[in-house]
């Protein structure tokens, strides 16, 4: 079964970025960085979603991220599906931090229950078919609107680029590199929207 083990972002200052991600989100080596900043403008076509148990955890993670220099795109607030906020970190990556709960039911925590890579696809149906052909396990599918794959420890979700941008509170326009490499055990390739996949470098106990 295909698993996504880590995400690598291209940044100008790797030491500063490593320190930022450790302090802001505390998800360990699931998030990695490497030097270099390929040209890009506007929306990079993806976001990382951190799914947590309750609103206080959303507020805590949003707080440390913003304190470290992130910009709020959507302040944390209650919505139809729960409680969530969206921000852009100092390195241009968009994060959505969300819970299905609308009130706290336990002690304060910074625990992240799920990490989901949200990709904005130009054609969700075609990209879904592409990933199924590569053996990714489908777990949810709502036609051409939303698709999710069970690639834990990091899940993969697809929706249209326009829908993704609207959900995240940004303009859908953008060109150039995604500045993202998906580390998985699916081989080396680029998907129909040029998202790059490469073999994961993980400790032996994770295999």
UniProtKB/TrEMBL annotation:
<protein>
    <recommendedName>
        <fullName>Glyoxalase</fullName>
    </recommendedName>
</protein>
<dbReference type="InterPro" id="IPR029068">
    <property type="entry name" value="Glyas_Bleomycin-R_OHBP_Dase"/>
</dbReference>
């Amino acid at each position: 079964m295909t698993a996504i083990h880590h995400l690598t972002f291209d940044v100008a200052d790797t030491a500063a970025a490593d320190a930022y991600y450790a302090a802001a989100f505390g998800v360990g080596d699931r998030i990695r960085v490497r030097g270099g900043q390929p040209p890009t403008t506007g929306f990079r076509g993806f976001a990382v979603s951190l799914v947590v148990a309750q609103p206080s955890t959303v507020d805590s993670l949003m707080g440390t991220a913003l304190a470290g220099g992130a910009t709020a795109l959507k302040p944390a607030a209650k919505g139809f599906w729960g409680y969530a906020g969206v921000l852009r970190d100092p390195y241009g990556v968009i994060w959505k931090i969300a819970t299905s709960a609308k009130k706290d039911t336990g002690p304060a925590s910074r625990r992240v229950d799920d990490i989901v890579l949200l990709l904005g696809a130009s054609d969700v149906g075609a990209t879904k078919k592409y990933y199924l052909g590569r053996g990714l396990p489908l777990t949810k599918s709502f036609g051409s609107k939303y698709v999710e794959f069970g690639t834990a420890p990091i899940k993969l979700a697809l929706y249209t680029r326009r829908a993704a941008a609207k959900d995240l509170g940004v303009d859908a326009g953008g060109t150039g590199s995604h500045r993202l490499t998906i580390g998985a055990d699916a081989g080396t390739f680029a998907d129909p929207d040029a998202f790059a996949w490469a073999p994961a470098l993980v400790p032996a106990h994770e295999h």
